[in-house]
Hints:
Strand content: under 5%
Order of helices and strands: HHHHHHHHHHHH
Number of helices: 12
Distance between the termini: 42 Å
Oligomer: single chain
Number of strands: 0
Structural class: mainly alpha
Amino acid sequence: xxxxxxxxxxxxxxxxxxxxxxxxxxxxxxxxxxxxxxxxxxxxxxxxxxxxxxxxxxxxxxxxxxxxxxxxxxxxxxxxxxxxxxxxxxxxxxxxxxxxxxxxxxxxxxxxxxxxxxxxxxxxxxxxxxxxxxxxxxxxxxxxxxxxxxxxxxxxxxxxxxxxxxxxxxxxxxxxxxxxxxxxxxxxxxxxxxxxxxxxxxxxxxxxxxxxxxxxxxxxxx
Length: 222
């Protein structure tokens, strides 16, 4: 299933009503309506569509990409982190990862450190809202870990608690991993004890990122 089909398939009836098929013309509109009408989780038959409309594979997938971008605008007109939050809440993590990379590249190209810092900050905050599945550790999961270091590197005003936040996130991931395999209580208890010590230090500071992400996590362990 292509990203466009996956995206449309995940939408509720209310959200689907926000899509605007009439913004497309000709063959693109016909393909879009075919996707809208499809109820097969495998999606439409691309080979049949390509033959029927005498398209190259490159042009076909380019059209799907253009339509996906248009659908993003219909659902999240402001794009940016609003779109990322929507994709994360819908557990569309392939979309989430691709959009993360696109937005970061756009901000780097614009040479705007302030906007890039805000972007990393807001994406890291999203970790308190939804959890990435383990099978994404090769892409979106790894990218979010890298964002922690990029955020610290670009911060205009460093916070003494920043390194504690990074350490705490590493512990959180280790504890989460422990909960998905055969539990080793000694390692689990040691990680929780270190996390509790870090929380005590964080409580003395004003690191908002740590408060939003770390403290709710600790509550779940008590």
